[in-house]
Amino acid sequence: MSHGERKLLWREAAAMTKTLLIVFHSMTGGTRQMAEAAARAAEGEGVCVRLIEARDATGDDVLAADGYLFATPENLAAIAGMMKDFFDRTYYAALGRIEGRPYALMVCAGSDGTNAARQVARIATGWRLRAVAEPLIVCTHAQTPEAILAPKTIGAEDLARCQDLGATLAAGMAIGMF
Predict the structure, then answer these.
(1) What's this model's pTM, rounded to 2 decimal places?
(2) Strands 136-139 and 130-131
(3) What is the pLDDT at residue 4?
(4) How far apart (Å, rounded) are the C-alpha atoms in residues 92 and 62?
(5) Which distant-in-sequence residues (6+ apart) come within 8 Å of 83 by Cβ?
(6) Which of 75, 95, 143, 163 is 20 to 30 A (C-alpha) from 108?
(7) What is the 3-state secondary structure (H, E, C) of the chain?
(8) Any residues with CB less than 8 A from the CB of 119 and at least 6 apart, and which?
(9) Residues of the chain falling short of pLDDT 50
(10) Is the distance from CB of 151 to CB of 28 less than 8 angstroms?
């Protein structure tokens, strides 16, 4: 499906209901698992859910959404470069056009993830988004080069936390709470 066709289908869906945009980046699979768990849970809450990799997300995608869930790995105590690229590419399209919309954040961290969470909070402040939940940080404790580069498997308890966040954000959007 072309980008234009995808955009048209999403606009039609968005006209019927609110749209939750989930933007993520994942190199080793952990963040993808988290984003997909949140998306599955959000789909049952009466919103149109769009799950898009950061490299493919555009300013039009951001403008078409009513709320956002960002999912990033922690790389070198910061958000992944591809997530930063997403924010950089879409900033001017969004500036002055999405104030007050709700957002939440998930971080797949090798250590504590707090700096990555602070970085997204600063970006969201610039976009004038409204945080509706504390950042959800899943720590994989990957500290060696081998562990950092290895494919990740997120445990059931952490995936349940991701589902809860996705469902809560979507439900709040659906009833107009956010």
Answers:
(1) 0.90
(2) unpaired
(3) 61
(4) 11
(5) 23, 25, 54, 70, 72, 120
(6) 95
(7) CCHHHHHHHHHHHHHHCCEEEEEECCCCCHHHHHHHHHHHHHHCCCCEEEEEEHHHCCHHHHHHCCEEEEEEEEECCEECHHHHHHHHHHHHHHCCCCCCCEEEEEEEECCCCHHHHHHHHHHHHHHCCEECCCCEEEECCCCCHHHHHCCCCCCHHHHHHHHHHHHHHHHHHHCCCC
(8) 78, 79
(9) 10, 12-15
(10) yes
Here the tokens at position 131 are: 């945080």
The model's pLDDT over 78-111, given as tens digits with 9 standing for 90+, comes to 999 999 999 999 999 999 999 999 999 999 999 8
- The amino acid occupying position 99 is E
